[in-house]
Amino acid sequence: MRKLMWFTIGYAIACAYGTWAARGSGLLLAGAVCLMLSAALWRFREHPAVKRGMVLALGGAFGCLAFFGYAVFVLGPAAAMDGVEAEVSIRVTDYSWQTDYGVAADGELELSDRRYKVRFYVNEDQNLEPGDLVRMKAELRLTDEGGSREPTYHRTSGILLLAYPRGEPELTAGEPDWRDLPARWARRLKGILDDAFPADSAPFAKALLLGDKSDISWDQSRAFSRSGISHIVAVSGLHVGILFALVGVVTGKRRFWMVLAGIPSLLLFAAMAGFTASVTRAVIMQLLFLLALALNREYDPPTALSFAVLLMLLHCPLTIAGIGFQLSVASVAGIFLFYEKLDGWLKNWLPGKGKTLRGRLERFFTASVSVTLSATVMTVPLTAIHFGLVSLVGVVTNLLVLPLVSCIFYGIMAVCALGCVHMGAAGAAAWVIAWPIRYVLAVARTLGELPLAAVYTVSPYVVLWLVFLYGLIGWLLATKRKRPGLAVCLGALGLCVSLMLSFLEPLACDYRVTVLDVGQGQCILLQSAGNTFMVDCGGRRGEEAADIAAEQLLSQGITRIDGLILTHYDRDHAGGVQFLAEQITIERVYLPRTEDTDGCLQSVLNSCAEQIDIDTDMTISFGDAKNQIFPPKDAGSGNDSCAAVLFQRGKCDTLITGDMSAAAERQLLSDYDLPDLEVLIVGHHGSKYSTCEELLEATAPDAAIISVGAENGYGHPTAEVLQRLEQAGCAVYRTDLHGTITYRG
For residue 657, which of 136, 301, 399, 683 is within the disulfide window of CB 3.0 to 4.6 Å? Predict the structure, then answer.
């Protein structure tokens, strides 16, 4: 029995409980219960199942105690500084980068005799380097956990505090020490790759070698996700394994030299990659392998995985909430659990035997497919939950590109080595390596653009299919008579049924309004009997808003929309149009005559072929439904210059006013006879200057939907608007609380 594995599972469950459910006395109570359960099982420990339960409970007890200590002695002092303004001295640990809020950097801050990782922002346009010192008066804020206590990326990577300047920062160039060398060397290698590689392949080279995805374009990132190979550009166990294989080749697999060269190589690579969770897990496991090799002991991969997980959670229990950590552990666990069974089944299915070329190719095929499927079985639920999609072409894409990834990785390393000596030679080598990189990018782009490259969990039918699929896997594992062929057929049939229902359900609705959760922005789908219009497409980031809209449409089998109506050209209403047009065909776009204050109009014009000006009242009829578009009264700027849209079918009416002010709403009531509404899309995301009492009295909406971002800096929706809606008797729905909202009439 692998005692460490069961102990680690219990410890991890306790960390998850502390992260998402309870802290303080709740943790102590849970730890006491686990400890008593472990003691009660001690008498029956001769039974293997009981022994596993005893060790599991003991791990849970220790995990609860450790998390309680972490909450008291680490989280507690940090929480006490939340909202406090203080003079701080921060040692920069990595290079700064530009954000929407100024220059940002990571550093170390000493607080209560403990060093905390902190992310801070400065207003100056100045580059910070590892070792620099920043002294300033700053407001410290605890990194938040979201509405459901879901830890943010900051927390899962150990960053507990944010620092915002409240005075003029004093910057001092520090003396770099050995701790800063990996970051400086990584920066140097990134510079070599930028100079040596052509512009179309340099971002991929930096991402593959060092995990720097900052220059990966939005469309490339989308292609990687849909084609199922995002893991290639997220430095992980795959990359550590490739590096370790090189160590084995260079040392001739001699034990002494492998240990001597492997340990510093792995640690340096992890440090240069920033000790991300996936790299750290893989490096710990490889170091344990080297230790077993040096001591002539047996290496047990599941035990090594358990030790790596336990060590990482001991350092930071909140690591368990990081998606990188979860995917890394799940993929390795899947390979341990399923690889041999899948490989054996595929080998029995394929006739190729022996050392013939056909036999070797088939063994390579079965091994590649088995590894990919084994990892995928455990990671699909995580990608579905965190990213909302499941790639259907991932196995094929991995088969086509993974054999080249090792060669590309070694080629990039060679370019870096040559670049340290002679940039001309590095450039020549990079020109050669750029071609297989272009092949990988082309495969990802081609397969990612296939109509059913991925399915999306915005469809409840896809979620039900996933539940059904994993029920099949459970049945297959539990039954004595294995019938994988039947399970595959049933899974494929279930997918076909779920897709058919996803595609047919919108067609069955005569009237359907969907307000997408795009954060602080607006994107609305108007659908009736197979026709689809969209009103606005924007958010804080246009790419994200476009992806959310595209996923909603593609999950319904819709690859083209009849029209896109823009109320105005603010970024949070029109900033995603150009990105949406790359994924969905927009037949025509309806443009109001108003000023383009955010510079979005030109990108819209470049993206959509047929453009129709809204210079007068306009009615678009489709079947029994129609869209009435009311143009702005003047072509100036500001919230008085928005178009409005009235979507009607039968007795169902929905009004969309964009960011209209109260004055513009009153003008709208004066110019047009508006009907009683079933749905009102609340103006300007719930601003107190919109959705006036006169509009509510004249239209008497049954429901009011607010498209608004969670914890936005504008205070939307305001108390004044919520009070007016309550007095009008509206049922209020908000995207920040309820997510994407669909009204069916």
Answer: 683
- Reduced to 3 states, what is the DSSP secondary structure of residue 487? helix
The structure tokens listed for 719 are 């108390």
Provide the pairing of β-strand 102-111 with 85-92. antiparallel
Q: What is the CATH number of the domain that holds 114?
A: 2.40.50
Q: Give the C-alpha distances (Å, rounded to integers) separating 720 from 560, 668, 691, 724.
A: 39, 21, 10, 6
**Rounded CA gap, 556 and 487, in Å?**
26
**In sequence order, what E strands does 242-329 have?**
none
Residues near 727 by beta carbon (within 8 Å), at least 6 away in sequence: 696
- 19, 321 in Cβ contact below 8 A? yes
DSSP string, 335-382: HHHHHHHHHHHHHHHS---TTSHHHHHHHHHHHHHHHHHHHHHHHHHH
Could you tell me what percent of the chain has a pLDDT over 90?
Answer: 64
The domain in which residue 15 lies consists of: 3-80
Of 120, 152, 176, the position where a domain reaches its end is: 176
Confidence (pLDDT) at 577: 94
Q: Could you tell me if 304 and 441 lie in one domain?
A: yes
Question: Rounded to whole angstroms, how far apart are CA atoms 442 and 446?
Answer: 6
CB-based contact 316:158 (threshold 8 Å) = yes
Q: What pLDDT was estimated at residue 147?
A: 41
- Is residue 745 predicted with pLDDT exceeding 50? yes
The verdict on 528 and 568 lying in the same domain is yes
Closest CA to 627 of 695, 561, 705: 561
Strands 563-565 and 512-515: unpaired
Residues 407 and 338 placed together within one structural domain of the fold: yes
Final residue belonging to a domain, choices 80, 104, 125: 80
| Alpha carbon 686 to chain centroid, angstroms | 28
Tell me: do 397 and 427 sit in the same domain: yes
Are residues 589 and 495 both part of a single domain? no
Measure the CA angle with vertex 181, ends 178 and 182; round to 5°.
Answer: 125
The domain that contains 690 carries what CATH number? 3.60.15.10
d(CA 608, CA 615): 19
**Domain count along the chain:** 5
Q: What is the DSSP string of 414-476?
A: HHHHHHTT-HHHHHHHHHHHHHHHHHHHHHHHHHHTSTTSEEETTSHHHHHHHHHHHHHHHHH
Dist CA 243 CA 85 (whole Å): 46
At 437-488, the pLDDT tens digits run 999 999 999 999 998 999 999 999 999 999 999 999 888 888 877 677 788 8
Give the model's confidence band at 124: pLDDT under 50 very low, under 70 low, under 90 confident, else very high. low
Residue 353's pLDDT band (cuts 50, 70, 90): low
In this structure, the answer to whether residues 76 and 106 fall within a common structural domain is: no
Q: 192 with 339, same domain?
A: yes
**Cα→Cα distances 663→193, 689, 692, 696, 710, Å:** 56, 9, 9, 14, 27
Dist. CA 437–CA 199, nearest whole Å: 12
Bridge partners of 654, per DSSP, are 647, 679
Q: Could you tell me the pTM of the whole model?
A: 0.89
Identify whether residues 377 and 465 lie together within a single domain.
no
State yes or no: pLDDT of 637 exceeds 70: no
